[in-house]
Amino acid sequence: MLVRINTAPRMQIDGQLAALAGERMSCCEFRYRRGAEIFGEGEEPEYVYQIISGAVRTYKLLPDGRRQINAFHLAGDMFGFENETTHRFTAEAIVETNVHLMRRTSILEAVRHGGAGTKDLIKFVTQNLQHAESHMLLLGRKTSLERVTAFLIEMDERLQHPDVMILPMNRRDIADYLGLTLETVSRALSILRDEGLLRFDGNTQRRLELVDRGALAKIDA
Amino acid sequence: MLVRINTAPRMQIDGQLAALAGERMSCCEFRYRRGAEIFGEGEEPEYVYQIISGAVRTYKLLPDGRRQINAFHLAGDMFGFENETTHRFTAEAIVETNVHLMRRTSILEAVRHGGAGTKDLIKFVTQNLQHAESHMLLLGRKTSLERVTAFLIEMDERLQHPDVMILPMNRRDIADYLGLTLETVSRALSILRDEGLLRFDGNTQRRLELVDRGALAKIDA
DNA sequence: CGCTCCCTTGAAAATCCTCAACGAACGTGG
DNA sequence: CCACGTTCGTTGAGGATTTTCAAGGGAGCG
Description:
Helix content of chain A is 37%, strand content 26%.
């Protein structure tokens, strides 16, 4: 499942990781195929990851298979840091994904010695917490239309307002992120399309164009 | 709203705060009346709090008044730390509450100088994140009965499995924590009572006894 | 004794989910 | 390059869960 494609460190987007490790990190590049598990809930954390290209979902499962996706991670994002001895969720590549990885112990070492990356680490965990807090508001109190709209706005911002937004995840992933079923997600998108707030680009449903960002923002509440 | 009751630091339960501030903290004790706001969303964070006695809810609001409670904080708990320049949610005393407070800047100072409390701070934020992640699973994917059961189990554990659990919060608070309405919470509690998994103690509905913790744990999924 | 807040319960309504069918896109292998 | 199976997305109908609306009773407090 795990294919090493290049052992030489690439320096273009590893600023955050480098800072965390106090510039003395061991850094490799790996590729995961579409659908491949990067680490599983309960496993011992060995690496911290930064996405070079692709997309990753992290999720928790209930015993009967119900799934809640905590977050989507896109190019440039870090994920997988654990303070504890086990991973609290599972991470999978949504599409073919290339990541930088570094040993978790290097980071812990850096923190123990008061490394320069300590503040960045706190900031990283705090940002995750901040995202989780607003997602709790969405999951606990927003309607299906508001949730889907909020998702579109979040993706639009993270992809820096592209003309055409290309979603790496399917409807089921979106549903499990928003606490809905895939049918409800599909219906909400159809409503937004029928009302002229977005357009599907071409004959594929993963490429969409936000026509009226102002109206979308108003729906998001 | 804010009444200073004692300016002398109390040392019994401030271990965590003390560690964070590298033992050189300025620490006061304050009392908040039932319902009093401790800080508001968007305000500039000045203090970090630790509860001596009482209970606190932290929540976010949507423009139309829908409320999502992120967490309940009980005696011994810390809350209110912010890495950013504004509070991300509002904190209110659920009942009359006594807190220790210390200046946020002392903690940031300690971290900047590689203080001994840095690791504790990361741990603190990580624990909050961990709670938020499992709460997202609850809000996104659990039924009303599972949510109420999970709430009871969480409170039972945090109160260290008392014979009679005394809840400081009302049904609306529980509902806003679980992403439900107060009626649904009430109905779920009635079901659990009718099935003999819990008992209401006396003629008040805030005191309840978990009769069959095993059965409750099974419902929680 | 009043009032207010809190909780429960019932009935009706709304939202969302489940089940089902269908068509399109994609990927694989010939 | 095409055929075929698989995955993916949409839409409809019916059903289940939760919410909304409403009423009533009990506890606490001035």
